[in-house]
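FAQ: What does a multi-protein file look like?

Like this. Sequence, then tokens, then the next protein.
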Amino acid sequence: MAVRILIIEDNPTILELMGYLLRACGHVPLTAHDGLEGIETARRTDPDLIVCDIQMPGLDGYEVAKRLKSDPVLRTVPLVAVTAYAIVGDRDAALAAGFDGYLTKPIVPKTFVAQLEAFLRPGPRPGNKSCTHSAST
């Protein structure tokens, strides 16, 4: 079974790019366009990893992290912030809110998937192929 990675992102272009990169490396991207949809999708699909934007309308990433990390089933799922928030203190704020990792936008297509794979729980994942994607975007 391939690795299922939930992407919670309100920008359709970024969401599409992340999904494309993950599919190209053999992962199954699950998508949500806002925080509330992301929480519902996580509960319904039990992903292996969750990638979440911080600045979104409605529930922002901080609130998403708080809710996911208080959920007894989802609290152990690795949660990575992928955000344009990149000033001093933003990384610490994201980690303090419950994120397990922090990546900045714009993402780098060549390294994005490998950066996310570093947050996956160890263990065999049949059907998964790790890759370094070299698509030009």
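And here is the next protein:
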Amino acid sequence: MTTPTQRPPELPGQTVVVIGGSSGIGLETARRARTEGADVILTGRNPERLEQAAKEVDARRTAAFDATDPAALEGFFQSLPDPIDHVMVTAGGQYYALLADMDFAQARHAIDEHLMMALQATRYAAGKMRPGGTLLFMTGTGARRPGISLSIAAIAAAAMPALVANLAVEVAPARVNLLAAGFVDTPLSASLLGDDLDKRRDQLRATLPIRRVVGPADVAALAVHIMTNTALTGATYDVDGGEQLVPGA
């Protein structure tokens, strides 16, 4: 009987920074990066939750601040003493509202948070990164699935691929890539759906081609692959279990 050969880790000696790494997709990405030999640096808004997350993944360093504050974001990257390899930004949220009920100030803030934070993070991080590293951002798939209450989310989702492609050219050899997620079963999803969460899970299990709900580990696996594959830049990668392929999913 032969014993399978254990493969070497894919990120040995590299440093992965996760902006919004205290829960959900960010935390799962940090966890997977650690299993691949990387040191991780986590940031988040909530100091207590961030501290717990850091213990879970044995983070090298943490920083508690609001990533939507440009001065705080710039100060964080300036404070990093060593070169870094990869940055994943999961911080920020979406804004969903009927046009009749829309708070335009909140809508503007959501667009600014989604798009401007990507510009700011790239500006502040690119000069700190070793060649071959990637800045990795997240968006949704709302631009390709029009629906009620999705106008602001769709604007951000439509703009991000163009933004990422342009940034990838401008800050090369640093790489810039984008994950476009459908429903992902995270604490944020639970807070948005409340009592409707189980109903949504059941619907997706019944209708998605993969016959299961996409979880943070699915997104994290793709994120780490993009970190390790240095041929990938300026591109958008869907991770939605085929949700876009199914009418009404």
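Q: Is there any per-entry metadata?
A: Some entries carry free-text notes. For the entry above: The chain has a mean pLDDT of 91.
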